[in-house]
């Protein structure tokens, strides 16, 4: 579903991704683990289409289509979704207005009619209830005054409503207590299945107790240095990243 | 006289009718002594009328049938109680029969009925030339449920000089909601004045939307608030080739309250100058001024705000804020907030900030599938729309909100 080939990316002259190659199959949950500064968040932003990165080489394909020249919105309409590590606060924009704009923009891009307001409200309410998101939260401006956990639940709400084919979870577990982590993980697991894939970026194995990965990749110095099954995450939890940091330096 | 009189000043002199009243003649002499304001006059530094107004269009006359037909064509059906002016002249036949509504009285305005306005050459010029305005009286204690709308239209097919001058008075304890829609076309010159006097405990929500103002236009709003009176006044300015909108406010009675706010949305080479002087002339008055500017293309925004607190106006509470969002590198914003405080027990503050759209917020919206242009509109709307909260009237707030989103929908924000 997602194929990244030989990706080289710099920010302000500093190389962050150095020939990264990665393939995530249809229906697969792939985890990327790695130490701080290995380029994990950069990878998620570049795949989502953020403009301030300098891509020197490489391709990213979603369902076989090269997305390198596509805007973030076009990528979203193709079914790409990014759960932000630090979701943005947008004062003055009501959450419901934002959700409706997003859902309708994607429907429009796919040639579907706008969602009738009643249907929209119904969907949001039902999905919000599953994620313990109160009506009061929905009335506030986007993420404004939300706790870290509330912000992450809002991300999962958006994901559930937009039903993306490919989701990137950028350190979804950061800032979450164990209950919020469970709630978010349940939201992700509910979407798992044929035709949907996930790239789960994390420092810690803990998240993978709640979202079981099919494959685990280790990232260091801007590339994938090792791949394996879920047992690789457990090994990392025990031994740390020292081996990979040194290996990359050599 | 300050220096040589410009060509425009001579032309105004030529346009002054031979049979002007002595007081109109006095105002004109005052105008001539000061001269057409320009860069060298501090309070007009950012709006150089002297350079802008090279030629003075012919005077607009009281509307004839043809002019009324042109104006009528622009009127859309509305639920509101409507007062229509054509080139500054009150047009009863285009207006609703507002006198049938209990508590409202409308009549032609007489020269004696205006309270003293600020010392400003353009206000003097208006006083010299204006004829045919209206006096809107809301009776003591009256509560007017329907929105009263003042619609300023033009009946001219060519450039004209317009000098509307009207007065709104609310008796003690009266409450009303007034919408002013200024749609006088891009052409000509305008120098209008509106006087608003609120009696004790009166409350007025006043929203003004200015679109397609004259090629060169000055609007002056003079406000006088008695004790505990409250004025909430919000302006939405857009598509203004060259506009100066100035408020001169006197908080004349103890405990009077003013909320003055505005959103200024400009593109092209538009120029809009919001200038306000708020005199806290009594103790314990409150004033809040908040203005937001959204500037694209080569637009030029000006904010000048002055809060004046004389020694006896203790317990004054005044705060002023101006924020500008620049959408292009060629757009410019000049902000000059000032405080003149001579009392020692006051809480006053001001601030000004210029920003750009937040790239991270834009990216966040885009990753949710909202195209770039749409995302910009959402953020611009969010930036500007909160100034409308200064109004208590939900109807007026919603009207301005809809107007703003229509405005943003019409044109792609320039980048």
TrEMBL record, chain A:
Pfam family, one: ABC_tran
InterPro entries linked to this entry: AAA+_ATPase, ABC_transporter-like_ATP-bd, ABC_transporter-like_CS, FeS-cluster_ATPase_SufC, P-loop_NTPase
Protein name listed in UniProt: Fe-S cluster assembly ATPase SufC
Highest taxon, organism lineage: Bacteria
Organism in which the protein naturally occurs: Rhodoblastus acidophilus (Rhodopseudomonas acidophila)
Alphabetic keyword roster: ATP-binding, Nucleotide-binding
Gene that this sequence comes from: sufC
Family according to the record: Belongs to the ABC transporter superfamily. Ycf16 family.
SMART domains (UniProt xref): AAA
A GO molecular-function descriptor: ATP hydrolysis activity
Domain ABC transporter: 2-246
Entry keyword ATP-binding: yes
NCBIfam families, sorted: sufC
CDD domains documented for this protein: ABC_FeS_Assembly (cd03217)
From TrEMBL, chain B:
Record domain SUF system FeS cluster assembly SufBD core: where: 158-383
GO biological process: iron-sulfur cluster assembly
Database matches in InterPro entries: Fe-S_cluster_assembly_SufBD (IPR055346), SUF_FeS_clus_asmbl_SufBD_core (IPR000825), SUF_FeS_clus_asmbl_SufBD_sf (IPR037284)
Protein name: Fe-S cluster assembly protein SufD
